[in-house]
Request: fold
Amino acid sequence: EMGYQVSGCDANVYPPMSSQLEKAGITLDSGFDPAHLAGREPDLVVIGNAMSRGNALVEYVLDKGLAYTSGPQFLHDYVIRDKWVLAVAGTHGKTTTSAMLAWILEYAGMKPGFLIGGVVQDFPFSARIGDSVFFVVEADEYDTAFFDKRSKFLHYQPRTLVLNNLEFDHADIFDNLDAIKRQFHHLLRIVPSTGRVIVNADDANLADVLAMGCWSQQQGFGGAGDWQVAAPANGQPAIISRQGGEQWPLQWQLLGEHNRLNALAAIAAAEHVGVRPQTAIEALAQFRGVKRRLELIADIGGICVYDDFAHHPTAIATTLAGLRQEKQGRIVAVIEPRSNTMRMGVHRQQLAGAVQQADRVFWYLPPDISWQPAADAGRAVADINRLLDEVMACVIPGDQVVIMSNGGFAGFHGRLKAALEQRYAQQQ
Reply:
């Protein structure tokens, strides 16, 4: 959109993001061969935070003296420097809440720019410049780059800041929860006094962060906060309310208490830039969600298959609880612990509690993962083909199958769909 010629590479390039990038006219290369840059003479190399010294392409950039920066720094310097930034931070729900907020502003005619870390079904792309002063960004606490160990969100300088929740994660870069709290407090330090911090009122860790100092306006959501939501009951819609007695019904497609809290945060953030709550709720009634967030990808032979991005015990638990609350039938969870923190086994003691709402649980633990879940956390399988056989032997009509991974899961989603299609084609 800015007129630059863009190309990029990653270790593994796969849909849905690869498809979206190609649609945008971006050249993709697989792997990190210096040949990807040789002869192209780029004006600037943007280096992702997964890259480190020793990577062949990183070494090429340094040896050749090419100009380089990080993704967050590029965003600040070239895109959002003069924008009113609405940032969504927290351990869980950043992508969905950012998508909701961008869609609310779009529905209200504000033509926002945005950068969202997922494929949003209500927009053709996950990022755009926009045609107004407003810019919505998913604000991650992970570090910026091998040469900049600050959290990414410190580059965004938000005027409206949502803090969804805060738990220990990213054990590969943070020693403990206090280290993460400190980064969140650094974020609070750069919100202007005329800015607004919208915070989950039920989160004790966020309360600790606020106690370190906050110099901006504050609003709470959930619990005893300024914004609250009553769960749907007896076929009635959820009810959004604000202190002072105003109430609005929310009828929409998304499931679960966590998504209702995401909606509260988005409504509150949108109000800060002038969107009436009623307009925001009308927008959410049309919101289709983000791919890989409890996305129904197949309904074959009465077996529903969902794709979900959950990769932390709390996210796994809330996803399963939302499905249990609003769908009938057994829940079969198939989980790939792919994040660095999960692969390290940091959360293994929490896994049994996280999957309590599931009737059957399968963990894909290839040989390079050294730990095993407790017996009451489900069955561990090391081979992807055997995993498919065992899941197929388990599932029956009426089941809700949830595949959870923040990666490609060795193509398991497609393999399961194909196996189900073959089974039920033979029975017709």
